[in-house]
Each structure stands twice: as structure tokens, then as C-alpha cells.
Amino acid sequence: MRRVEKNVLSPSSLPGKDVWNKNMFRCTRVGFILAGLWMGLAAGLPVSAQQEAKIEDPSLVLATFREGQVTYQEYFNSIRYRYNEIYGTKPNYPPHEQLIREYAMCKILSASTQLEPTRTILAKSLRWDLWLFECKEAYTRLSEEVFYPNTEPSSEQAKNYYAEHLLNLTPAKEFSFRSIFLDTTRCSDEACHTEKEENAREIHSALQARITSPTGAISLDDFLSVASEKTGLSTAEFGLRGPFPVGEINPDLERAAWALEPGQISSAVKTRTGLHIIRLETKTTGEPPTFEEKEKEIRSRLRTTEISRRRRSFRDAYAAEDRMVILPEGMKALIQWATAPAEVKDTTLAIAGDFSVSVLDYLHYVRSFSRDQIPDKDQTAEQIEKIHRDSLRNYIMERDLLRQQAVLMGMTHDATYTSRIETGKTWMLGKKCFVMMVGNRIRRVPPPTDEEVRAHYQKNISKYLDPAKYQIREIAIQPRSATNPYQTEIAYRESEVTALKALEEIKAGSSEEKVVQKYSSGEEAHTGGVTGYLLEGIRYSHGIWQELLHAQAGQWLPSTFRHRGQVMAIKLESLIPAKQKTVEECWDAISDELLGIKRGEIVRQLEQDLTRQAGLKLEDENIRKLPPLSEWVR
Fold first, then answer.
1. Spatial separation of the C-alpha atoms in residues 121 and 117, rounded to whole Å
2. What is the pTM of this model?
């Protein structure tokens, strides 16, 4: 990868300009990457969150060490760079002190004169990461200076949009609810129906007793509490249903729900499947909203539309396909590489403006970011050309053309861009140095001795078990197809009746294999519904496994289950109990575990050594002035 006119790989903003020559991409990649010691490369803040924090004093010092310091501005930039990584810890964000210490260590390592040869090697291994980072930051500056400014629509534009799209802005007439359901499909006589109706009245009275609001609403907690207490079911069984458009569910349920206001409850509603006591959750009447009610949403839509239009126009003007050249000789060499890599001579593959990429450069990119797209000998020449022509255009040349335009517009020379780039490079190179140093120390660690392995086994013997294995027999009933949620519920209940009927036939003495073959549509129905041996947690839901773990071998579970779109009756056919492994059987696992412990100790010791040698000191008083991370990462 190089700029054709200057014959260099990257502008001077990237580290070690002398190492970025045209031959750099032919160096081998540093082989050791220690996954999990530090978090991976983050993509930075999403554009919508790239507004700078309100920093009263950007030069506020948060940490000092012998060769430098960490300022408020640098730290904020490092959080911005690591946004995705830190957001992933929500809501348990790491403390400021930890993040400041990590960035300070990166700054110490990236500035150390003793590590100059190491940094040169790492810069080569990170060349595409640095290029991509530079492209992203250039695009961010375009967003901030070209795409985002002055996108606020006028009042006239907003009102015109409201008038033109009023129909789409009007919410559908719909409602949602929770219900306590008493099933009567299994009642065989009038006494059973009478008992269910009495139960429904009792539940309704209990709910009424909890109502304290003048509007007649019952709190959700009270509703769930009574429902669970009176039915013996988990509160999870009374989940939200809907929203349903008018005309989609049973008319009796719909009329009862529509007569309520949110939070209110109905008396028992009778349908052909049972009795329902409804608590209305939401209701929209379908009335057109006023302009004032929708103004904020309309303005947001218009801003988004304008930003998207500007991006498309900019891309069409400065990153059109006619500015991208993919050379036939280069593509021919790429195709040849798939079958005879040793015979391929490096040649230019593509050119976009003052940027070019060679075949070997591009292969390094693919290995770094798109390993599943590496040319393969089993692919045809047409497949390889199609995949990589699109990849070159969409992920490399378009990005760099936009970067080049940002450079021409002067957006990569201001203090904002420079500060962000320097922070990102510091983190990237410093982290990579740290990983390499850890790797060097780990390679000198001897393997665990026999005595260490045996001692660890004895100390943690309960961990080393060959887990129990379970063989299951199932009857899986596929409900008939349905067109709406109400009909779907009816279909499930019909299938539950069928599953219980199958169990009754088995209890009456019918062959299990024949009953399964008669009723089941499961994967193993043709062989009597018996699965292979399964480990706990495999194939079935947590709730089903909880029942299986308390069952006896040869026992059918007393209730049916809804799972994977089917109704199931399940039997624990046989069980192979857990077995204690010998130390020899788990020798390799214990050795790896002990090495992992030593790796953790090495990481902690290296962190302590580096911070002590550099004289790192956190400025606690200034750190206390920082806002919570939740204000930056949201």
C-alpha cells in the first residue's frame, strides 16, 4: 500500500515515517498475539456520540511519569477511541483510575527509546490497522464539518413533512395486555367448569382488594403477585401479550380489553378455551397526533435524511467507481496466488487517486480483517475476481478516496484530528508492545512440573469430572399453522391435549415406540423418539433440564412443554452418572490451567514493573473532578 506520487505508505502523522517504505508490507507479521490480556482494538465512538465533552481545562493533568503526563484531553480521546470496548462493560464501567493507568502504560511504552526496534516491528504488523484508523478519523472530521452542520430543518419544512406524512405518523389502533388464564379444555363435566368459574371469581376478588388508585388501576407488581399466588405459576407466565391491531384476536377478549384503561382489570372473560382475567397495559386509539406531539421526531427524521443525502452526494463526487482502477495483471496474480502462492511476483493490484495497493499488500489486509475471504484454490477465477473486486472497491479504495478528500480540504491538519490520531496511535502501539513483552516473558516460563499438576488436581478434584450424560425419549407434536397470536395459542393447546393423549395410551400399555411414531414429528420419531446421550443444557431449555435433573430414569415428566415451536412430552430414558476423571485423563487441561495462572501473574507483575520504573503517579484530586463514565459512554 502506498501513495503513488510520494511513494510512501502513510502520511507523516503515522509513527516512524522512515519505516513506512514501499517494501514494508513484505515483512512478516509478529506471530504472537496474546488474546484476552488486554481488550481488542475498538472502532471508536459512533458518529452520533462524537461530540466533545465539555472540558473546562483540557490540559488538566490526571497522571504523571518521568517522561511525560496524561492530560484530560488525552484521556477523553482514549475513551473515545475505546468506546465500543468500554460500552461493552455497561453498566459496570471500570473506574477512571484503571483506564488512566492503562493509557499511561501505553504512552510510556510507545515513547520509550529502549523499545524503538520493537516499535518498528510492531508498526509494520499494524500497518493496516493504522491505515484504517486514519481513514475512520478522516471520515469523522468530514462528518463533523461537512455532513452534520446546518442540518436543522426549518419550521416550514417540519410542518410540510407533517402534512405529507400524517397518515404514517398516526399510530395504529391497537392494545396490549396481560392475562390470568384458567384452562377449561380439559374439563369433562359441568362440575369442572363450575369450579374454574369459582376460581376466576376468587382471583378477581383478590385483585380488586389490591386496587387503591381512584382510576381503578392495579399496580403491575400487585397483579403479578396475586396471579402467581392464586395459580401457583411463576410471574414469567403472565408476560405481555401484543400489541394487537383491532380485529386480530378473539372478539370477546378484544371487547373486554378495549373497554378498559391502562392498569385496569376485567372480570372473567369466557372463550372456548377457558377463562381470562385481563389487565390492560397499553391502548392507542388511532387518533392523528398534533404537530407539536411529533415535532421532535419529525425534525430528527429530516436531519437524518439530510445527513444521508450529503454523505451519498459526497461519496458520488469524490469516491465514484471511475476514480478506482483495478489492474488486470494484478487481479491475474491474485487469482494465481490461490493455487501457487510461491510463484506469484508482487505487482500493483489497484489504484485510487494517489493511493495504490499491491497483491501482497492486499493479501495482508485480507488476513487482518477478512480471513474468510482469502483466495482459495477451490474457488473459480470468476468467484475470486468478484469477491475481491467488490472488497477492493468498498473497503479499501472508497475509504482512502474519502480520506484523500479530507486531506485536500485541510481536515487532517487541525488540532482536533492530530490529537485524536496521536492518542489512537499511542494506545495501539503501546498495547501491542505490552502484548509482545508479555509473550517474551511467557516463552521463558517452564511447563508445570509433575508435582504441581498432581497437587493442583488434588486441591481441585471436584472440578475434574466426566459429566453425567442423559438419554431422552420425546414426543414432539407440531401445532397446526395459525394466522394470528390467538389462533396460535389455540393450536398449542390442541397439541398439548394430543401430547397428553399419547401419554395416556402409553400408561394404558401401548408400546412407546409405536405411540411416538404415531404422534411425534420430532427428529428421532422414526426410531421411537430416543435421542443420543446429551450433556446437561444441550438441546432443551433451562426449564426442561431442571425437570429432567429431578426425574428418575424411565420416568415421563408429568407436564408437557413448549419448545422449539413444538409441544413436547419428555421421558428420561437412561442416565450415565458423572464419573471422576483420573489425573492422567486431565493432565493437559491442568497444565494449561496452571500456565494460564502464571500468565496472569506475569501480566500483573509487568504492569507493576512498568509503572514503578516509569514513576507513574495518579493525580487523585484531579481524577475526582472527572464526570462519571456513563456521561461519556452512552
1. 7
2. 0.67
